[in-house]
């Protein structure tokens, strides 16, 4: 079961910024703690996201470190925000909030997928088929809770300040009949409808391309509005979730996505291919001889 007490994305972001601001000020942890009249463990807990600092703690820290007033105000607000509960907190029995929180905060999401339609664009039937095959040990009640969480995620694309969402799908994702032919037809129709929205871009990497820039696996690149918010590249696999925050590696991830887009079909041609493949799924298939 996910740990509801683990640090949130905002909490980890605040901890990282407090550490970076101390280092910019040229202070050791021991020196900063002494100047603040705190114990070293107290400051360490703030910088490692073990304890949530109060806005007044953040103000006291940044008054010592100096720097721009705007930075202090932004981090004090972040200290307030880490106590807010997002929609994902209602589903902490079946998911961790980290990626959902990133999605919720992002202004731009760029997703390269080679295995399945990304969660933000999945229909309920398609999502349930995936959840069943990937978590076969779960009870029916837990499966349905996972489905509810998956469907709740999609709301971010409908809100007034929805993020810009760019997706590139490998053609094989469209051809694999997850849940059966009719489920797949409805899923592809949903992609066509989604592509009409101004904040959503859907493109396809055709099999005919051969080798391409995305052959080392799927990833999601997320960008944020705040000046202090670093972009993140998200990777997911059987071993768990990986959040890449190193500036150089994130930059390489964004360049990789640009290269994938260069090799993919245009949005117009991608839409035509999705429609064609949906028709193919509707055709009756002869049983193998």
UniProtKB/TrEMBL annotation:
Coiled coil: none annotated. InterPro entries: Cro/C1-type_HTH, DUF5753, Lambda_DNA-bd_dom_sf. It comes from the Bacteria. Residues 18-73 form the HTH cro/C1-type domain. One of its GO terms (molecular function) is DNA binding. Gene3D superfamilies: lambda repressor-like DNA-binding domains (1.10.260.40). This is XRE family transcriptional regulator. The lineage of its organism: Bacteria, Bacillati, Actinomycetota, Actinomycetes, Streptosporangiales.
């Amino acid at each position: 079961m996910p740990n509801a007490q683990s640090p949130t994305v905002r909490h980890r972001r605040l901890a990282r910024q407090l550490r970076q601001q101390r280092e910019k000020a040229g202070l050791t942890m021991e020196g900063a703690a002494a100047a603040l009249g705190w114990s070293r463990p107290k400051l360490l807990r703030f910088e490692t996201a073990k304890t949530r600092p109060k806005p007044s703690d953040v103000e006291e820290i940044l008054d010592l470190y100096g720097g721009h007033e705007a930075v202090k105000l932004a981090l004090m607000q972040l200290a307030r925000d880490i106590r807010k509960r997002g929609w994902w907190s209602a589903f902490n029995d079946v998911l961790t909030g980290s990626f959902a929180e990133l999605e919720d905060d992002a202004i731009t999401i760029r997703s390269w997928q080679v295995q399945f339609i990304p969660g933000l664009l999945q229909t309920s039937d398609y999502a349930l088929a995936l959840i069943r095959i990937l978590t076969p040990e779960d009870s029916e009640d837990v499966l349905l809770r996972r489905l509810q969480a998956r469907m709740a995620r999609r709301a971010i694309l409908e809100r007034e300040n929805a993020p810009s969402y760019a997706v590139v799908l490998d053609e094989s994702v469209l051809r694999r009949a997850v849940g059966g032919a009719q489920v797949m037809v409805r899923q592809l129709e949903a992609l066509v409808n989604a592509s009409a929205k101004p904040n959503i871009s859907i493109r396809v990497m055709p099999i005919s391309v051969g080798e391409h820039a995305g052959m080392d696996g799927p990833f999601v690149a997320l960008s944020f509005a705040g000046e202090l918010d670093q972009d993140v590249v998200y990777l997911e696999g059987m071993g768990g979730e990986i959040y890449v925050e190193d500036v150089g590696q994130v930059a390489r991830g964004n360049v990789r996505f640009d290269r994938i887009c260069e090799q993919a079909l245009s949005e117009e041609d991608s839409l035509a291919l999705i429609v064609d493949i949906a028709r193919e799924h509707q055709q009756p298939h002869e049983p193998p001889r």
